[in-house]
């Protein structure tokens, strides 16, 4: 969804209405990243978002139905970028064994989601418990991440690197561990080397997948 009111179509200052509207939307997204990622969603008003983005309240409602839609857009953006990075890492590691594949995909995910502590806070903290709609949005992304991990596991089973068993609960545990550790690392100011975080998560994932039950 995007906005409730149509924007004017006249050209102004050499820029079309569409260009000006796109710029306003980008400023609102940047304001949401800054305020939701530092002050928090609950402590951020639409008025504060508009003042930070230098747009009017009317302009805000041309782009978003409210704060929640802006938060959802940010959450969607960070997950899309993380997914694209993971797909690229998976492609580059084609044919590699499970340890290398796990390390490269973990590194790709962490490098995107924890590239900025504001993104990590939005991705792993601020979106939780906001509304039933946002919970459904989160659930759809978690299902995508679960499918991605299960695809890696199935390949490992085919190569004989993992036991042929039901990994549904294992994947849920892995997603929770990754989310919490990435947020913890980012919230602490990333005072631990990224390589250490990637190594710990890779070790955890390999242990969970390769341990027979």
- Low-pLDDT runs of 5+ residues are none
Distance between the termini: 46 Å
Portion in beta strands: under 5%
Shape: elongated
Mean of all residue-level pLDDT scores? 88
Write a compact overview of the structure shown.
Helices cover 72% and strands 0% of the residues. It is mainly alpha-helical.
Commentary on this structure:
- The protein has 213 residues and is mainly alpha-helical.
- Helices cover 72% and strands 0% of the residues.
- It has 9 helices and no strands.
- The chain has helices spanning 17-38, 46-53, 57-63, 67-92, 98-113, 117-126, 132-158, 168-187, 194-210.
- Helix 4 packs across helix 6 (117-126), helix 4 (67-92) runs parallel beside helix 7 and helix 7 (132-158) packs across helix 8.
- The radius of gyration is 20 Å and the shape is elongated.
- The relative contact order is 0.11.
- The mean pLDDT is 88.
What's the structural blueprint in terms of helices and strands?
Elements: H1 17-38, H2 46-53, H3 57-63, H4 67-92, H5 98-113, H6 117-126, H7 132-158, H8 168-187, H9 194-210
């Amino acid at each position: 969804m995007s906005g409730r009111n149509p924007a004017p179509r006249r050209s102004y200052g050499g820029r079309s209405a569409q260009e000006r509207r796109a710029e306003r939307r980008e400023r609102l997204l940047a304001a949401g990243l800054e305020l939701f990622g530092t002050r928090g969603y609950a402590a951020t008003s639409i008025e504060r978002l508009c003042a930070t983005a230098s747009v009017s309240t009317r302009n805000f409602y041309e782009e978003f139905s409210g704060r929640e839609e802006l938060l959802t857009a940010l959450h969607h953006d960070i997950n899309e970028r993380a997914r694209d990075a993971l797909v690229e890492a998976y492609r580059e590691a084609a044919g590699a064994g499970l340890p290398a594949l796990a390390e490269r995909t973990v590194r790709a995910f962490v490098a995107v989601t924890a590239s900025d502590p504001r993104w990590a806070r939005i991705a792993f903290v601020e979106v939780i418990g906001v509304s039933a709609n946002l919970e459904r949005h989160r659930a759809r992304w978690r299902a995508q991440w679960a499918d991605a991990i299960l695809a890696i596991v199935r390949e490992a089973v085919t190569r004989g690197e993992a036991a042929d068993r039901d990994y549904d609960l294992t994947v849920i545990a892995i997603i929770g561990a990754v989310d919490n550790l990435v947020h913890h690392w980012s919230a602490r100011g990333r005072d631990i080397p990224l390589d250490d975080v990637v190594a710990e998560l890779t070790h955890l994932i390999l242990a969970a997948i390769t341990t027979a039950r």
